[in-house]
Amino acid sequence: MDNSDDPIKATRALLNRPASLRHGFLDVLGESASAPAPTFAQRAMNSPFVATVYERLWRPMSFYLASGITTGAEQRRAADALRLSAADRLLDVACGPGNFTGELARQLPEGGLAVGFDISEPMLTRAVLDNSGPGVCYVRGDGRALPFDDETFDAVCCFGALYLMPEPFRVAQEMVRVLRPGGRVAILTSYSGQAAPVRHALAAGAGVIGVRMFERHEFVDLFTTAGLVDVEQQAQRALQFVTAGKPAG
């Protein structure tokens, strides 16, 4: 079946646990489950107001200041790194309001499926309203236990979210688990490889709002230890972009 004909049905078939349809997205957590939000940054990601302004104002401005790269350039780099022109299924972990999910879906071949995944109801509600389309579906769940079987997706990404999560390395390991042999993974996250005065200032500011700063080697080592190949890292100011592939066969 062409995934663009009924992306909800196609996504439901990939899930390994029951999901209800709420506000246009599939929910494996249920109405009673809520995302833990102990820090300011995590509370913001669960705010309906932030969900509304995130993709239009907050993210483009903050990420440009942090990296010097525009959202459009980020999206083009992501599509190239993930080799979406040859992918059938994409998983966008911590997709927020879908500002990357919807755009990357258009880079998939005809009949491809892009699944945006997040724990925040307000973000996913916004994603359904603003960034739906053929071959796009959104799922609510916990990234520490992705509700998909091993080797389900050709491309898996997480842009601008791992530094907010209580167990980021567990989430990254889950991303590797659901990646098919021959598939590609890409992350954009914080970076603390600057000179000492700048690094200390960034760490202090990040600590106040609850953002974790990652060292240069942490995700490179994680992907390498997991058996991934072609691991590459690009650092821009306070952000790092790391890509890798899972060996085929």
Automatic annotation (TrEMBL):
Q: Which Pfam families match?
A: Methyltransf_11
Tell me which residues make up the Methyltransferase type domain: 91-187
**GO terms (BP aspect):** methylation
The protein's UniProt keywords, in alphabetical order, are: Methyltransferase, Transferase
Record-level Gene Ontology MF annotations: S-adenosylmethionine-dependent methyltransferase activity
Q: Answer whether the UniProt record assigns the keyword Methyltransferase to this protein.
A: yes
Tell me which domain of life the UniProt entry assigns to the organism this sequence originates from. Answer: Bacteria
The keyword Hydrolase is annotated on this UniProt entry? no
Xref: InterPro entries: Methyltransf_11, SAM-dependent_MTases_sf
According to UniProt, the name of this protein is: SAM-dependent methyltransferase
